[in-house]
Amino acid sequence: MNRITPEDVGRRVSVRRLLSGPDEPVQYGDVVGDLTGWADGVLTITRRDGSVARVAERTLVAGKVVPPAPARGPAAVPVEALQSAADRAWPAVEYAGLGDWRLRASAGFTRRANSVLVTGSPDRPLPDAVAAAEAWYADRGLPAYFQVVAGSAADRHLAEAGWEAQARAIVQVARLGAVADLLGDPDAGAPGTVELADAPDRSWMARYHKVAAEGPGADAARHVLAGPRGTVFAQLREPGQEVPTAIGRATVDLGGSTMPGPGGLATGLRVVSYTAIEVDPAYRRRGLGRRIMAALTRHALDAGATTALLSVEDDNEPAVRMYAGLGFAEHHRYHYRVRTADTGTH
């Protein structure tokens, strides 16, 4: 007997299905994974290794909700895989390579899109790589920021040279199905509806605090915000208001990064990156941020994502508490290193 319904989307399930045809010996097959979709008579189940099974509802013999899989430790997903996913979710206008390092420039719109993504190794000694990056940014009239994993070799080198650490952030991950369970329906028993769109409109941009809807930097901001495939924008308005009270953004990335799988084989990391979750200060503590997260999470599940990714500045205590309550766990920390007046020119 089937014990699962479309209401179980987002949960981990075990189903048995009929594999054989009407004139063949009876044969069954089992599938265990996150139920990430149920539409048009087809169930979509994403296994722990990232592979996807599509099961016709008419072939179901039995099904049940099962406990979440034992969580892999934070070290199970390489730092580099999450760095790559986050970079694709916030793409710079201009890129250049320095060995494995990625130099990014976007007319000064956000540190992330105007900094060196320090990953792997540069193609030259560390002091020479730092000098080359500084020259590249100087040519563009920008300061050189280095996004470094806290405690890494590059971080230690820059710290010893007197570079200041800014915008300390915590990278957090979670199993998406578990996040969806905790968030529930974004519009249940609440006024208004969370609206989703493929691009940021003027009202969304009006709420976003990091850039004006028009003027210098707006074009670069739109490139960064709307550039990635699989990106969706959420907003929630009070009746009669043009500017939303809460907004958010999520980018679904299916398989662009890899992580170790069974037997050491690489498997796709099916990740959703959350960014730009903002609530009007006058409307905080009303659950609006959770509603935005819930709508984005439901969208990401429907798109096939299984891992949730976000970063939060470590001094943003309300956000850290909210995400902890949704099952997010710390993966690693990063910050930006920037030369100060006391550091000197080289």
From TrEMBL:
Q: Which Pfam families match?
A: Rv0428c_C
Start and end residues of each N-acetyltransferase domain: 192-346
Q: Name the UniProt key words of this record, in alphabetical order.
A: Acyltransferase, Transferase
**Transmembrane residues, as ranges?**
none
Q: Which domain of life is it from?
A: Bacteria
Is Mitochondrion found in the keyword set?
Answer: no
**The keyword DNA-binding appears for this protein:** no
What InterPro entries does the annotation carry?
Acyl_CoA_acyltransferase (IPR016181), Bact_Acetyltransf (IPR050832), GNAT_dom (IPR000182), Rv0428c-like_C (IPR056935)
Q: Name one GO molecular function term.
A: acyltransferase activity, transferring groups other than amino-acyl groups
Instruction: State the protein's name.
Output: GNAT family N-acetyltransferase
Q: Which organism is it from?
A: Yinghuangia soli
